[in-house]
Amino acid sequence: MTTEEKLTLTYTPSNFRKQQSKLLKQVANSNSPIRITLPNKEEGPNQDLFVISAQDYAEYQKLKKDYMQQIDYEIGELSNAIPHTKTSDTKKVEEWLRED
After folding, report:
1. Residue-level pLDDT at 92
2. Strands of 9-11's sheet, edge to edge?
3. Less CB within 10 Å around the terminal CB: N or C of the chain?
């Protein structure tokens, strides 16, 4: 658990419902996330939900997009570095498949 997760206020569903309006205003005004823990008695560990501000969500989307673009670039660079051979000769294809 990171320091940020430890500092995020955590609420049960019933406590969240009681203070919902106040908590949502807090997220919007102070840009601080809240955590809601849903008990999962039958199927293992509890599930956590995070409520974040629109500003944080936009930042998350941008970071995710940048990360995916970086991955695409790196995969492309690796792919370009590998020598490719095109052939329709079935004997060569069979030999290549048997190499492993």
Report:
1. 87
2. 9-11, 34-38, 47-51
3. C
pLDDT, tens digit, for every residue of 61-73?
A: 999 999 999 999 9
Instruction: Fill in the amino acid letter for 9.
Output: L
Q: What is the rounded CA–CA span in Å between residue 12 and residue 39? A: 8
Return the half-sphere exposure (C-beta side, CA atoms, 13 A cut-off) of residue 57. 7
Closest CA to 30 of 49, 7, 12, 11: 7
**One digit per residue, pLDDT tens: the chain, 100 residues?**
555 555 678 888 888 889 888 999 989 999 889 999 888 878 778 888 999 999 999 999 999 999 999 999 999 999 888 887 788 888 888 888 888 6
> From CA 5, how far away is CA 100, in angstroms rounded?
46
Give, in order, the Cα–Cα distances in Å from 78 to each of 35, 83, 87, 99, 100.
Answer: 40, 10, 21, 22, 21
